Amino acid sequence: MMNQEIDLNLTLSLGESVNVGMGGGEPEREKEREWTEEEIQKIVIIQRAIKRYLERFEKKIDRRRTRDAIAMELYETEKSYGKSLNSIINRYYGPMEENKFLSKNSLNTIFMNVTQIFELNLEMTSKLQLKIGEWGKYSTIGDIFLYMTPYLALYKDYCGGYHHSISKLEEKRDAYPKLSQFLDQNFMETGVQLASLLIQPIQRIPRYKLLLEQMLKNTEEDHKDHELVAKALEGIEGVATYVNESVRERQSMEKILELKKKLTGDVPNLFLVEKRIFHIEGVLGKVCRKTTKNRTFFLFSDILIYAVKMENSPIAEQYKFHRAIDLFKASIIDVPDKPGMEHGFQLLSKTKSFTLLAENFIDKQKWMGAIRTVINDYRERHGDCSTSGVGGTQDDEDDGSAPAPVWIPDGDAKTCMLCPVKFTTFNRRHHCRRCGKLVCGACSGKSYHLENLGKTARVCDNCYTELSGEEKERDKSMASFPNDSKKDKSKRQTTSVTGLSFFGKKKRDDDDDSPDSPPPSPRPPPLAPPGMSNNTNPGASPPPGAPPPPPPPPAKRNKPGPVRNTSFPSNAPPSRPPPPGSAPT
Ligand SMILES: [Zn+2]
Ligand SMILES: [Zn+2]
């Protein structure tokens, strides 16, 4: 207030003088009050200095008031936290020990070290009470929390056992009606469940962190407390991170368990990867061959699962599992809005790529941000894998395979994208598995082994020419550097770091309204599974006792070469010799 008044006065007097100076033809006595330029400048400088000083002064007072309030809050919340701990021990732990409802072991599992935590709380409360009693400008509070630092391990132990504690409590409550009755009785009297009391130590740590952060922000750097609070905060932050992580892990575990119950169909083992963290879930439109379909997506720290919600399911919220996409080295691309395709983005992964449409701009930002974070973190976690490969494989090189293409929707092309042929009921659309283009049967008569899919698949003529050209080039360069062949081979056999690559190898390309007609017979024919003949006609199988059928045709080419199948077991022979008299294809 005072600050503003001074400000106003100075401005008024300055304003007057400037007017007088510029007016020129004013009476003589007015001219006596005229200011020189130099004086005006001096006044402006003084004015600014006063303003700055007052602002700083007010801020200082504000900060000190905030400090007082935070100290008070630390004390008050510590007191009420103590009441909860007291309730755990005197309303539950003690009586349950006396009643002998449960064994000593079970009680230890449920109540863990809560008695020690309560003791620590009592000490903290009395220390805080003393401080608050004589609280002043120079008081410190960081020292109390520094005193607590060595005991913070109690909270780590508590947090580590919390999950077991809650499940043990539920298990025993279901098993013993007397215990159940006892718990219900206490709930009726206090209005608080034991489980809500048991979680309080876990919630206390983030609270300490928040309040001490505020305290540090509002403590002058030359105040004794500044260093003390900063040090205490360091200790708390370590425990807070631990607590947060274990809470997240537990939530993810619960989410995965919940999802396991909700998903039906060919669901992969979601517990395959340890510490898989759940991020977000929601409905997105997935652009499919004919239309956009709503799918429910579940984003984890390494995979993106999508499923379709089953209508009229007898069990509430049931989903049919479609696919789990390994997000290692996946990427997302923003798709500019166009009519009928709003709030879209593309997900590109090795095994499957597609366009997704969010409901609105905010939803799109949320999903893109979340997926991007997961991809980056995943890359960071496994960064060592890509650089420690044989011969120091470059990060972006990996096994040299590009992501799967985004399939061009059926409605986007009325004619083959390579030749003028029109698509009809008989002349059907096919998707090239390498570039995603819509092509006719004649332009996609060949198939090729695609590294990203780990299998042989339909490709268009353009892609076939490109791929076989690349291969010739590679063979040529390998012939001139024979020592490199081993390195190249091992690189080609790299499998996914998570071992999840099989997720993409579903027989059916889900979400395709009308799947392509059976892929053209690969040229050369595919490798038959071990112990089985390539002959698919059961009537033509040789009679018992007949000599075994001739060995199957070569895996890929007639001359032996490196195996290109990424999922081929490394101890198996790299290729088979050509059958006698086989004609070149
Ligand atoms: Zn064509
Ligand atoms: Zn193609």
TrEMBL record:
GO terms for biological process: intracellular signal transduction. Residues 277-376 form the PH domain. Keywords: Cytoplasm, Cytoskeleton, Guanine-nucleotide releasing factor, Metal-binding, Zinc, Zinc-finger. Residues 410-468 form the FYVE-type domain. Residues 516-529, 540-555, 571-585 have a biased composition (Pro residues). GO terms for cellular component: cytoplasm; cytoskeleton. Pfam families: FYVE, RhoGEF, SOS1_NGEF_PH. CDD domains: RhoGEF (cd00160). It comes from the Eukaryota. This is Uncharacterized protein. Residues 468-585 are annotated as: Disordered. Its main location: cytoplasm. It is found in: Cytoplasm, Cytoskeleton. GO terms for molecular function: guanyl-nucleotide exchange factor activity; zinc ion binding. Residues 66-246 form the DH domain. PROSITE patterns: DH_1, DH_2, PH_DOMAIN, ZF_FYVE.
